[in-house]
Amino acid sequence: MIDKIFTLVIAPVFVGLVLEMISRWLDEKDDN
């Protein structure tokens, strides 16, 4: 049960952080 909650909470946060990092990286690439 704890594993399920952990996955439901951490997965979206992890994905959000990854997408944020990728979008920032792409923005920095475009600036150069």
Summed over residues and divided by their number, the pLDDT gives a mean of: 92
Elements, N to C (H/E)? H
How many alpha or pi helices?
1
Helix content: over 70%
Structural class by sheet pairing and helices? mainly alpha
Report, as a whole number of angstroms, the end-to-end distance: 47 Å
Biggest β-sheet: count, sense, barrel? Answer: none
Fraction in beta strands: under 5%
Uncertain runs are none
Number of strands: 0
Tertiary shape: rod-shaped
Which assembly state applies to the chains in this document?
single chain
Radius of gyration: 14 Å
Protein name: Type I toxin-antitoxin system Fst family toxin
Keywords: Membrane, Transmembrane, Transmembrane helix
Question: Could you explain how this protein is built, in words?
Answer:
- The chain has 32 residues and is mainly α.
- The chain is 94% helix and 0% strand.
- It has 1 helix and no strands.
- The chain has one helix at residues 2-31.
- The longest helix is centred in the middle third of the chain and has 30 residues, at 2-31.
- The chain is rod-shaped.
- The termini are far apart.
- The model has no long low-confidence stretch (mean pLDDT 92).
Topology at a glance:
Elements: H1 2-31
Features:
1 helix, transmembrane, 32 residues, transmembrane helix, Type I toxin-antitoxin system Fst family toxin, mainly alpha, 0% strand
Quick structural summary:
The chain is mainly alpha-helical and 32 residues long. The chain has one helix and no strands. The chain is 94% helix and 0% strand.
